[in-house]
Structures are given as C-alpha cells and as structure tokens.
Amino acid sequence: MTAVASRTDEPGVPSLAARALAELAFEWVKLRSVRSNYVTLLIAAIATLGSTVLVARAVSAASAPPPPGPLTALSASFLGYAEYAVIPVSVLAVLQFTSEYATGLISTTFCAVPRRWAALASKAVVTGACALIAGELLAFACFWLTQALLSGRHRGVSLAQPGVPGAVAAGGFVLCACALTALGLGAIIRHTPGAITATLAAIYGVAALCLVLPSQWKDDLGRFTIAFAATQVVALHSQPGLLSGAASVLVLVAWPAAALLAAWLVTARRDA
Amino acid sequence: MIELNGLTKRFGQVAAVDELSFTVRPGRVTGFLGPNGAGKTTTMRLILGLDVPTSGTALVGGHRYQQLIRPLRQVGSVLDATAVHGGRTAYDHLLSLAVSNGIRHGRVRQVLELTGLDSVATKRVRGFSLGMKQRLGIAAALLGEPPVLMFDEPVNGLDADGVRWIRQLLRRLAADGHTVLISSHLMSEMALTADHLVVIGRGKLLADAPTQSLTEAGARADVLVRSPQARELAELLTIRGAAVKVEQDGGLAVTGLDAPAIADLAAAHGVAVHELVPRQPSLEQAYLDLTAASTDYRASTGPRSTEATR
Lengths: 272, 310
Hints:
The structure holds two protein chains of two kinds. The longest helix of chain A has about 35 residues, at about 115-150. Chain A has helices spanning about 1-5, 15-30, 35-60, 80-85, 85-105, 105-110, 115-150, 165-190, 190-210, 215-220, 225-235, 245-270. Chain A contains twelve helices and no strands. Helices cover about 35% and strands about 25% of the residues of chain B. Chain B contains eleven helices and 13 strands.
C-alpha cells in the first residue's frame, strides 16, 4: 500500500500505470476497511468446510461406491462449496456496487475516478482477485478434507492423478466467475435485493429451469449455464451431451465477461 | 474558476437546469441560492460529471470534470455528507480517497485535525452525528488541497459553533485565492458568508451579483398595514396611486406611500388602523421577491381570502 502511494505521489502528470495502481489501491482500501467483509468470508469458509465434511462422511458411509455420473469422488468435494462459498461471496461482490449506490458513496467514487470504465475495472480486478484467492484456498481445502475422509474407504482420488489438480483449480475459479458476474449485475441493477435475486438466478435459477425442460433441450441449453459448467469443470470425465471441461471453463469466463461488458455500457452513459 | 455555458439538464419534459450560464471566480465566496427544487444540486452534479448535461458545458479550470487527472487535487466537493459507508472508519474513508488520487497519507491526519475529527478518526462512521459527517465531508474535500471547492448545503446539521467554524473556514479559503461555491436555500446564512450571489429558480438564472448590490437593488421599502377594513383601505390606497399587495395573514404591503400619508388617508375616511409598520428592504426580501415566481412548492394561501373580504 505504501509503495503504491509513494510511487503515485510524484509531481506532474502521472503515467497510466500509476493512475491504474492508485485506482486499484482505492478499491482495495475500501474493501479491506469494512469489517463485515471479513466476517462474511470467515462464516462462508466455516460453513463450506463444515458442509464438506458432512457430505464426505455421508459418501464415505454409503455401502456402495458412488455411481459414475455427476457425483464422483472428486465432485463430492465441492457440494458444500457450490453453495456455502458461492452464495456469500457472490453477495459480497454484488454489494461492491449496490452498497455504494444505496449510501450515495458512488458519487464520491466517480468524483475520485471520473472515468467510469476505470472505476468498474478496478472494482472488478480487486473483487475478482480476492474471490480467486478465496476460491482456490477453499477448493483445495475442500478437496483435501474430502479425500482425507474418503481415503480410509479407498474411494479417494489424489492430486497425483492426471487431471485432478486442474479440476480442483478450475473449481476455485468458479468462485471468481460467480463473483464477477455478481459484480456486473450489481453495477447494472444498483439495488441490493434486485441484484442478489438476479445473481442467484444467473448462477442457479437458469440451470434449475433447464433441468425441468424436455430431455432433448435440457443438456443443449443447460451446458451453457454456470451451474452445469461448474459441475463439468470439476468432473474428471465429461458427461455425454455436455461440454468438455475446457469448453466449460470458457462458459465460466463468458458469463462474467458478458455481465461486466453490459455493466460498462450501462454505467458509462447513465447519470450516477 | 468554474464556468457554466448554456448548461441544460432535462428530465423528460422538465428542465431541472435551464440554459444556465455564469462564472464562479476565485478569491471570493460565491453563494448559490434558490428555493428547494430550483436545480442547485443538479447543477453541481453536472459540474462534477455525475450527471450528463442535455446541452451546454460546465468547465472547471477550463476542463470538463471527466478530463481531469487526479480530480480530487483540482476540485473538492461535498454533495451529500451522509453518503459514506457506515462500517468504515473516518480515517479509512479518507485514506481510500487519498490513495485514489495519489495524495500523500500524511494529509489524512492533517485534514482530520483541521476539521476537529482527530479524536474520532478510528471510529466507524455509523455512529457519527450529521454535524460530524459534514465535517468528514469537508475533510474529504480539502484532502487534495484543490483550488476549487464546492459544497452543497454545508451548514445543514451543524450547531451554532459548527456554522461559525465553517463560515470562517470558507472565508479564509476564499481569501487564500480558492474558488468557493456553496449552495443554500437560506438567504440569511448566505448574507453572512457570501461575497457574491448566484440566484436560480426553476433552473433559470435570476441574479448574478455582489451580495451588497442585490440587497440594495432587489427589494424596495414598504409599509405593512393592518386594518379591520382592509378591503376598503386597499381601495382608497390604490386610488391614491399606491401599490397594495395582500399578504398571507391579511396584512397589506403598501408601496408608493409612506406611513404618515397612509395614516392620514385612513383617518380622513374613518378607517381604523391596527398596525402600521414601515419595513426596510432586506436581503431576505430581495431573495423572496426574486424567487417568488419560481417556487415549486408553496404553502397553501387559503385563509387569506376570508380575512380580506370581511
């Protein structure tokens, strides 16, 4: 933090890089200076790890090994994570914009950083980086916990197996993708309840709708949803009818990209 | 220096700011006056690039606000002092703004001391009174030592001490060569603080003049007359060439005749007079006259007709 400020404290016209660093530091100070952000993250981590243990124990206690399909030994690691990490972190991401609109602080933000795209980009980088770090830590913790509990029954998988490290890392990225989708929706909708509803709809609702579609459409449309794609990236073998793991990662990039692009278009033109 | 040129903002059919042109110069406090809903806040939001003008321009130091590099070093502003995150401390709020514009960290302590907030710097803003939030807003505005300062209703929520403090602060800043624009709907406050006044109503410019000359030119002296036979007296006065305006409480505001002449006229016709008060022009009256036609929200004037016709 000190390094950033002293570098941008030079006289004269600052370089683009110095301005970008200052704008990132702005968002970082705002993010780290609100205690409820830490509390929410901590509770999310506890709930995620707790539910992961419960799922792992249930899988481990089952008399038969898990059937082939979505619930593999690997994806069982992420059942708790898929809700107890994704929902709170997405809500935090929504609040990055909506709490500023609710208090009026957004005017101050845009006075400090008048280029709206730069304000949006710095929020996205800071929120996205935090969500990625939290996601990777939690994903690997969930994996390790689950496999530790399953290995006693010789049903676990290990990081040494091909494809496993990539799958766990991709599972961590899911949190970043959801957070950035949420951030974009927060910037567009501006009101907290509406933006949270839209975010939950984007992450879970669209996929839930696809599940009740006639079977020939279910996978055709469902494979482009966040929830289906997230299941695919943590599965070692892609299910027939769905996208491959790599293509599913692209789906997980496309959702936040679309949300942020729309947010940029809307925010640039609108009265703050 | 702030320059407005034909600045217009329409919300649908309504022009909140209508072809507004004026210049705010350095070295003096400029009061920006108008009734509620006159467009003061919208004008300030247009200057800060928060709202997009329908037409016209607003320049700060010759540039549009969006073009400013490190704008907090050019313009300090407080639009809404309550617009802070309650979970953040005063220090962190100011620190975030300092790093955003490459302002040295030591400046945060300085503005906290300057605004008398140093003892609550590490307290979360949630517990601040409106007056403390106003001080925090002013601290944020002064953070980048900007040459231009713009405050929307800065004395709202301040106690008598606070009002005096901000008045002295604004005058000192202006004396140091800053450009200072403060909005208010309170004429009395501006009379004490501002050297120059810009008055708007319904988004249109009504006056742009030194405070002094506005007092002298705007309002004329009149005489307040109360009589149980107000209607009769009003007719007599009008015949004599006076202008009579019935006030809300039934009193007659008479111009064109002085108090002795009114008293003599009433006595000659046997009309009782209960009150006869010569009134000096005031800045308050000058302002009310200027804005009378442009007030959007006015209290109902119901009781007046029954009194006057009796």
